[in-house]
Amino acid sequence: MRLKAITLMLSPIIFCCCSTKYITQQSLSYTAADKRETQFKQIASIIKSSKKALAHLGRERLWFLQAFKRYSYQRLPATKIKNGQYYYYSENVSGFYYPVLKRTPESSPNKPELFLNFNSYLNPAFFGPIGQLRISHDNLAVAFTVLSRSSGKHILFIYFHSPRQLVLISEEDCADLRWGNNHNRLYYTITKNDRPATLYSLLLRQHKIIENKKLFHEKNPKFYLDLKSSKSGNLLILESSSVKKSYLRTYREAEGLKLLIAADGFLHAFPVNDNLIVVHKRLLSGREILELKSLNGSMISKQLWQGDCQKHLIDLAVISNSIAIITANEFKETLLLYQLTSNQWITPNLSFDFRSMHMKLLPIIDDSQRNLIISAEDYLTAPVQILIDPSNGRIIKVVQGSHPPELKDKYIRKDFIINTEHNRKIGLTFITNRKNKGKIPPVLFKVYSAYGKTLRPHFLGPYFALLKRGYALAFVNVSGSGFYGRCSHQAAMNGHKYNSIRDFLIAIKFIIDQNLSRAGKLFVYGRSAGAITAAGAILEQPELFAGAILEAPFLDPVSLMQNKHFPHTLHELQEWGDPNNKKQLNLMLKYSPLNQIKPENYPNMLIRTSLADKLVPATQALEWSRRVLNQATNKPLIVVSLKSDQSHTGPERVSRDLYELAENFAFMLSCLNTL
Prior knowledge:
With 675 residues, the protein is α+β, with helices and mostly antiparallel strands.
């Protein structure tokens, strides 16, 4: 009965991927009515056998879960928010993300006190984790969104501290929240098709809604809206993107909504104060510019920084009278500070150790703040926090996180830059146990190749348990990433994602040629857009791999880009290609994994997907597993873990996330018969 229920639950969505005139007959096969019954039976059989296969991993899964405890460490406190005389910060309780809000008096930083326990008001059985969380400027109210398990929407609440009262504001799917200059005015956005598209202004008086006015609405589903505000709350900035352009708009209560900039590219704004903003432009022409723009009527603009094809900006924050940016070029990251008072750039004197680590800006939201906080971490070093004086770039204090001190003595990190014959650069980081010297260890490859996102060095944490079992890790930045700036990203845009697959195979060949591993002992992990590169490499050379792990896999870009209900933006069409363009369609069919499956000996695969994933339909993972089994000339083990309530980002519980990671590692061991 349970198996029938799963099949019936799948039936409305398994064939929902749209396809039109340019879609080949092969990609239409899983929408043909006469084949539905057979396909249902095959998928149901895969799900049934997958449960049995996962059950056999129990012993090794438990070993990894216990090993994770050794490599767990206490993270430094999350970014704090200062209001009045208190610093506020959120913490995890019972495995959920951000359900508790604590505060620490400025006069007694070592005496934290509980400010709000959301579990006292909301039953975790019906509500998921907290999403957005904002404290009003006068410290009297907290606005937050929380996931409703029944509707799948992030509904909006306001908690008033005095008198204590929790008020439901909206049951629509809310995204960004911003307070006005006190707790009487709240601005928030409502999403449509997973895209924020409507801006509301909420007026409160004595904890009651007086007015809920719509300020901006975009009917076109191919649209995206983001919201920012100055620290005083008097200035709002709306960042939006459609298929053709990006826009910046400003809003003040006295002036209303005004269009500030429209450009062919991507625009992001960061308020300095109510009359001055920093604008980050990434144009389709390839230029990347940072400008300082005045809003006091003169509309004066001043260019502060310009990137190039190699150097690009990865983080930005405005603090006091300074603008802090982090730029990246290959494996190196650099912190720069621009002084608004002296109009000059300062390069803080950070040690080489920090420059080789991944840095993230963590400014405290407070008008009186004087110092900048940076988080820095490495694969073998847990995050540290660096306190910097932005006026002179001097390091004031370094706060170390707690982590096992012997990690760098036990493990080796090697960085490689591979130059291809097509003048592209591939970044490869290889990490292995020193005990593997003279051995050929199995290697887990992690790859992501879209949106200019680079795999930056993050502390490995539970991955050390896998290294302890004699495995090695390889992190690969190929075309489509931002490893070599805009050049790397552009090399895989407009349908040219096959370049990412080709680069990944070059990186694998490099590892084999260096005698760091060999064919048949390799594993690949691909999540979301990274699954296209992982699956593409498997289809090109399946003999290299012992197994693959695909999570929330994006495997059919042609059909999804043609789906009129999917909210395309300029970003996505530029990223994957336009199927309505015949030239780009041919390029897309070349790299689309679901269109390239052919008779081969395929490796074992663990595939995770969810029916509640609104970004990548579960149909893609299910159809991929069915076609691979039908075309395989051997008998690979295809394990499908199908959830019904997980979003695209994965488990909402920390414990569940670790459980699935342990299951991934146990699956890898089973593929090499080392269980």
